[in-house]
Specification:
Elements lengths: L1 E6 L2 E6 L4 H5 L11 E4 L2 H18 L8 H17 L4 E3 L3 E5 L2 E6 L6 H11 L3 E5 L4 E4 L3 E4 L14 E12 L4 E4 L2 H10 L7 H17 L2 E6 L3 H11 L2
Helix pairs in contact: 2-3, 4-7, 5-6
Length: 241
């Protein structure tokens, strides 16, 4: 099926085999003329399955048997993200929480507790909301803008909005809550690891350049926290002071 979505202020025409992509993107549909077009193929779906199997082998776990229709949603987003690089837009894995017109991206290896932490914000910080729970898009201009997307992890929490990114926070587990500013060189390996890295050399170089600019325009922090309400309050106080 064919349809158009507006994502990160770009109109993207999508031609898919299954309708899962359409249903995933209902909050982003538009009737505007596409600026970008992507089309998925059976080979794209096969690639996603092979990637899933390889990653499971590396982790030493049994691969999940995903449906082709679900794998197509991943394939479509992979193509979209690659095409958006020309507009200085890239994908960084992380959970983005906002208060008003200011947002912060919490990044960490899977299983650290990003979703748990930002849920503490929702419960304890008035006016807070989740922009995207897993795979937001970042536009690098004079400032960094973060966009909600329907690709939002297991919980699927997202909002079709654009917010100024006011900080990137590396989340680490700890018995006590403590947040401190950190340097770009210290956080660079994590930022690269948590960003989508295309296999094409030129596209990879462009991604690395966008990461570098993001690290120079955005304050960077390291947060040691437990998963108690005080963790959100500690982070919010420091990030807004």
């Amino acid at each position: 099926m064919e349809f158009t979505i507006r994502l990160a202020k770009k109109n993207i025409g999508i031609k898919s085999i299954y309708d899962d992509v359409y249903h995933l993107c209902t909050a982003y549909l538009t009737e505007d003329v596409p600026e970008i077009r992507v089309e998925s193929t059976p080979a794209d779906i096969e690639y996603e399955q092979e990637k899933n199997i390889k990653e499971a082998e590396i982790e030493g776990i049994a691969p999940v048997q995903y449906t082709d229709s679900y794998l197509e949603t991943l394939a479509v987003y992979r193509k979209i993200v690659t095409r958006l690089l020309v507009y200085d837009i890239f994908l960084m894995h992380g959970a983005v929480v906002a208060v008003g017109e200011r947002a912060w991206l919490f990044t960490a290896p899977s299983g650290t507790g990003k979703t748990t932490h930002i849920n503490l914000w929702l419960k304890n910080i008035p006016g807070s909301y989740i922009v995207n729970g897993d795979k937001p898009l970042l536009h690098v201009g004079e400032e960094i803008t973060v966009f909600g997307t329907p690709w939002a992890g297991k919980e699927g929490i997202h909002r079709n909005t654009a917010v100024k990114l006011c900080g990137i926070v590396l989340l680490e587990r700890g018995s006590e809550n403590h947040i401190e500013k950190t340097g770009f060189s210290e956080l660079l390996p994590i930022l690269v690891q948590q960003s989508y890295r295309p296999s094409d050399k030129a596209e990879l170089e462009k991604t690395l350049e966008l990461i570098r600019k993001t690290g120079t325009l955005t304050p960077l922090y390291r947060l040691h926290c437990n998963m108690l309400p005080e963790a959100a309050l500690t982070a919010y106080k420091a990030l807004t002071s």
